[in-house]
Amino acid sequence: MAVPYDGPKSSICRILLFFIPVTPLFPQLSYFCSAKTNSMLRTHTCGELSLRDVDKKVTLCGWLQRSRDLGGMTFVDLRDRYGITQLVFNMETLPHLCEAARKLGREYVLQVEGVVAERSSKNAKLSTGDIEILVSSFVVLNEAALPPFTIEENTDGGDDLRMKYRYLDIRRAPVREALLLRARVAAAARNYLTREGFVEVETPVLIKSTPEGARDFVVPSRMNQGEFYALPQSPQTFKQLLMVAGMDKYYQIVKCFRDEDLRADRQPEFTQIDCEMSFVTQEDILNTFEGMIRQLFQDVKGVDIGTLPRMTYADAMEHYGNDKPDIRFGMQLKDLGPLVKGKDFKVFDDAELVVAISVKGAAEYTRKQLDELTEWVKRPQLGMTGLVYARYGSDGSMKSSVDKFYGPEELAKWMSHCDAAPGDLVLILAGNEGKTRKAMSELRLEMGDRLGLRDKNTFNCLWVVDFPLLEWSEETARWHAMHHPFTSPKPEDFNLLENDPGKVRANAYDMVINGVEVGGGSIRIHDKTVQQQMFSLLGFSADEAQAQFGFLMNAFEFGAPPHGGIAFGFDRLCSLFGGADSIRDYIAFPKNNSGRDVMIDSPSPISAEQKKELGLH
Ligand code: ASP
Predict the structure, then answer these.
(1) From the CA of 178, how far away is ligand 1's center (Å)?
(2) DSSP conformational letter for 103
(3) How many whole angstroms separate alpha carbon 333 and alpha carbon 359?
(4) CA distances for 157 relative to 108, 153, 172, 596, angstroms
(5) Which atom of ligand 1 is nearest to the CA of 235?
(6) Ligand 1 in contact with 521 (CB < 6 A)?
(7) Does residue 357 have a pLDDT over 90?
(8) Among 199, 209, 238, 605, which residue carries the largest CB count within 10 Å?
(9) Degrees (nearest 5) of the Cα angle 399, 404, 409?
(10) What is the Cα 359 distance to its own chain's centre?
């Protein structure tokens, strides 16, 4: 019989306690060698026992989540990665053991031996809820300090505390499940890509900066003082060089680094499923990666997402106001300009864009609700000056907030143009084109949320294609690559490059799921002269282009195949599968909003000696 634990001991006693009881728990040598278990300390996990196992003698290991002392009985929830199993200590039959169990603290690490029994009051919420373990002996494998927050499904710990003690947070089921889901998504992606003939190749982490539109993290070089490596924003140039190298189909689940201001869905270091293929057209890439996402949904969610529709960038902007449309619901943007101009309403007359949406069943919105929506669009983030509305009453009546300027006949035209039906509310914004379209896109999403049209368990995926190659930046007064400088123009738009670069469309595509851009890529330039032309359009002198990207352009001289690729935001994809807004819980050790790891307290100063060695002063 095992010696029950009876309170803290000196360290020598603790060692004895550890060793004495373990031996009798495993009486037969064969047990240690059993092929059925990969653990010598436990026979089962805390998540697998059920009525089938009643009367079995078992040994479990785990953490004490909580205990309830009911006088005659003490109940303990024992937790591990796999679940929770209820332990019962009986005061009548084993009083010493029960008394020892009462002294155990939260998060103590236990090894417990006992017999599986059917529970009298079952817990349908637990996979092991039909059974409990009648404990015959236990060993304290380790004591635990009182945890700083409750380690249960719901916790009283605030964000900062949970991040500081992330290893405790990960013991909680929601965080643990998020990480397990992440591992499943990675495994499914690897399976698919391997099956399709992709080769996983690692690319370096200490590189030279690639212009992907964000700031680089840099690392000082000790051996080359005054010089710096950059951490990759993506392995873009390396994967293209792998195509020149003839690898043909490459992938990598890879860490990327961007020194940007952080938001809920951004981290300074994040992971991509990064892919590249040779001898392909855009069509081949869309088909291959549509196949991958379909497989991931199938494997991870058991959902068939069917064929992905395709929408041009121009249509996405016109109908949804942005390039990552959430197509779980309609409520498309309608240009009201031609219907409303020239009626002496200055706001509409002066506007570059008058745009409307029709909100189903919202005609009865109260004045207060409409005022609140008006304030919502006036927030500095959207910066609108006001909101015009028109109600289409269920009795067929029509009334707007601009009745002074527009009569019933005009309102009827608006309603029909916006596909509004009795009971609907038309919301209208007017102003500068870019700002107004963006604001309407936000308002559409907000109304979608309010009407419950953005169900997290419905997945609507699509490709957005035909992106512009370049966008003009007022700030820098020059063209910027919309995707990156290696993206090839559409051959049919090639002749516009010189004189009308803004009109050139790219062979670039994004995969969008529920309004989130989960992946993006392009067919690349594989010709040195075109690549040089692109750099010159982007304002690089020939020397600058050679200094920064000479390695790539030189490689193009040695027989570069036509190639293209894509990268998926792996953290985002996981959070989407998990139905969460933030990617944080899908990353084991994330940074906070100031880019800090509060657990290890990083970034941190380095010593004067280290600085000297690196040539930093
Ligand atoms: N390197 C690109 C990115 O990180 C993806 C690609 O073009 O393949 O967005």
Answers:
(1) 25
(2) T
(3) 11
(4) 19, 11, 11, 19
(5) 1
(6) yes
(7) yes
(8) 238
(9) 55
(10) 29
DSSP track, 256-321: EE------TT--SEEEEEEEEEES--HHHHHHHHHHHHHHHIIIII-----PPPEEEHHHHHHHHS
- What radius of gyration do the chain's Cα atoms show? 31
d(C-alpha 514, C-alpha 350), whole Å: 34
Q: What is the C-alpha separation between 203 and 244, in angstroms, rounded?
A: 15
**Residues 66-124: pLDDT tens digits?**
999 998 999 999 999 999 999 999 999 999 999 999 999 999 999 999 999 999 999 99
Query: Beta 563-569 vs 516-523: how paired, if at all?
Result: antiparallel
At CB < 8 A and 24+ separation, what contacts does 253-256 make?
253/186, 253/189, 253/190, 253/200, 253/570, 254/202, 254/203, 255/205, 256/232
Classify residue 597 by its DSSP letter.
Answer: B
| pLDDT above 50 (res 502) | yes
Q: For residue 508, give the ligand 1 atom closest to its CA.
A: 7
The CB density around residue 88, as the number of other CB atoms within 10 Å, is 18
Pocket of ligand 1 contains residue 448 by CB under 6 Å: no
Nearest Cα residue to 49 out of 112, 142, 136: 112
The token duo for 175 is 């965080």
The Å distance, Cα 311 to ligand 1 centre, comes to: 20
Q: How many CB atoms lie within 10 A of CB 68?
A: 10
Q: Which atom of ligand 1 is nearest to the CA of 566?
A: 8
What is residue 475's predicted lDDT score, i.e. its pLDDT? 87
**Residue of the CA atom closest to atom 7 of ligand 1:** 521
Interatomic CA distance for residues 80 and 95, integer angstroms:
26
Residues above pLDDT 90, as percent of the chain: 88
Q: What is the pLDDT of residues 536-561, one digit of tens each?
A: 999 999 999 998 899 999 999 999 99
Listed in sequence order, the residues at least 6 apart from 391 whose beta carbon sits closer than 8 Å to its beta carbon are: 363, 364, 365, 397, 398, 399, 400, 425, 426
Cα–Cα distances in angstroms (integers) from residue 573 to residues 75, 79, 316, 403, in the given order = 40, 29, 21, 47
Tens of pLDDT along 388-431? 999 999 999 999 999 999 999 999 999 999 999 999 999 999 99
What would the two tokens of residue 116 be?
Answer: 């599986």
The residue with tokens 């106001």 is 321
Could you tell me the pTM of the whole model?
0.90
Q: Which atom of ligand 1 is nearest to the CA of 233?
A: 4
Instruction: Report whether residue 353 contacts ligand 1, using a CB cutoff of 6 Å.
Output: no
| Model confidence band, residue 2 (pLDDT cutoffs 50, 70, 90) | very low
| CB-count exposure of residue 245 (10 Å: 0-12, 13-18, 19+) | middle
Rounded to the nearest whole angstrom, what is the distance from the C-alpha of residue 486 to the centroid of ligand 1? 10
pLDDT at res. 214: 85
